[in-house]
Write a structure and sequence with these properties.
Number of strands: 7
CATH topology of the domain at 8-147 and 259-272: Rossmann fold
Shape: globular
Number of helices: 6
Distance between the termini: 34 Å
Structural class: alpha/beta
Strand order of the largest sheet: 2-1-3-4
Helix content: 25-40%
CATH architecture of the domain at 8-147 and 259-272: 3-Layer(aba) Sandwich
CATH class of the domain at 8-147 and 259-272: Alpha Beta
CATH superfamily of the domain at 8-147 and 259-272: Creatininase
Length: 288
């Protein structure tokens, strides 16, 4: 089954009905709108989620929703009046948004709901809604994280930055490469490499110097081990917003990263499409 687009927002309800006669899977890309240093646009995470969802949809011929473009990003707000641009949702707002979108899809006849997440901090808060959707409806609920941060995974060997230059972190080599690839495909010029610079994370001032920090995770090192976690804002451990070295980024690396991530996700979702699913509570009664 082929459509002019696999995004439901581009289709009519006639198309949705025809699709549901054969398949019951839908992807929900979700990410954030947040500062990404001086050289990358605020939509960087959203581009990752949208691009992976689009490619997976084309590989498997499954539908996806428009991207949920705001996420859980309180650490990226910086000070009042500083103009960093981040739009953050409170945890309960994000969970309600995810719930309502997924519940709407289940109401219409979709049985397999796969969230494609492009923003790391969303992971901190989503478990309750994923469980609620599963327990309440019986639908197959999945959550995929197609990015790198501190887990190299399927992107092993692709980035040139050594570990101390955190290739997978905020606005570093991987994200900059992916946005350069996006610029090529979309014929845009969003990446401002003339503003790019290598900056590394450091320990926040409120912690003793006996602690250490190398990336954007909420945990810190003490005596070489990571057992301590603190609520930290981004500007407390990196002033510019860039954690790492974006100077080795290329569009070719970004395209290859998106290809690997998308093909891996597609293979996994194809397996999930074989699993029997019994939805026992479809109608979205509390939609008001």
């Amino acid at each position: 089954m082929e459509f002019r687009s696999y995004c439901i927002a581009d289709l009519t309800y006639v198309d949705i009905r025809e699709y549901l006669k054969e398949k019951d899977t839908i992807l929900i890309p979700m990410a954030s709108t947040e500062q990404h240093g001086p050289h990358l646009p605020l939509k960087t995470d959203t581009v990752t989620a949208e691009e992976v969802a689009r490619r997976v949809s084309e590989i498997l011929e499954v539908l996806h929703t428009p991207c949920l473009w705001a996420g859980y990003s309180p650490q990226h707000m910086y000070g009042a009046g500083m103009g960093r641009g981040t739009i953050t949702l409170r945890a309960e707002t994000l969970l309600n948004l995810m719930y309502d979108v997924a519940r709407s899809c289940i109401h219409h006849g979709f049985n397999r709901i796969i969230f494609i997440n492009g923003h790391g901090s969303n992971v901190k808060v989503v478990d309750p809604v994923l469980r609620k959707l599963r327990y309440e409806t019986g639908a197959l609920i999945g959550f995929v994280k197609p990015y790198m941060e501190n887990y190299v995974g399927i992107l092993a060997g692709l980035m040139e930055n050594p570990p101390e230059e955190t290739p997978g972190w905020h606005a570093s080599e991987l994200e900059t490469s992916q946005m350069l690839a996006h610029d090529v495909v979309e014929d845009t010029n969003y990446v401002r490499m003339e503003r790019a610079e290598k900056t590394l994370a450091h320990i926040p001032e409120f912690l003793p110097k006996s602690f250490g920090k190398k990336d954007g995770m909420p945990d810190v090192e003490f005596e070489g081990y990571k057992y301590f976690t603190f609520p930290m804002d981004h500007h407390e451990f990196i002033e510019s917003g860039t954690i790492g070295n974006p100077m080795r980024a290329t569009a070719e690396k970004g395209e290859e990263a998106l290809r690997r991530l998308s093909e891996h996700c597609a293979k996994g979702i194809a397996e999930l499409m074989k699993v029997p699913v019994n939805v026992h509570n479809r109608e979205f009664v509390n939609r008001v």
